Model the fold of this input.
Amino acid sequence: MSNHSVHKAGDLGCDERLLFERWLGRPLSNDETISVNAYRPHSAPIGDEREILRREILAQAREVGSRVQDANEDDVDALLDEAFAATRGRHE
Done:
């Protein structure tokens, strides 16, 4: 069985579309694409694997950061605060 499904909103049945619109909190346009993924929970990495992943994330963050122009520390802090607030709002 697949863990991924993609559908055009216009192709969804009435009940399916209503469900997705409730999840999203807004109406769908017929030309929008809906993508659903299912993931099994797994334990967090430990030891060497955790350290390798940490280094990869830092390298990616540095690479992304190197592309930023004209950003000052206050702007970055404000963006981070906004992102954390949005994340907390979804999980509470």
Q: What stands out?
A: The beta strands are 4-8, 33-37. Residues 47-91 form one domain.
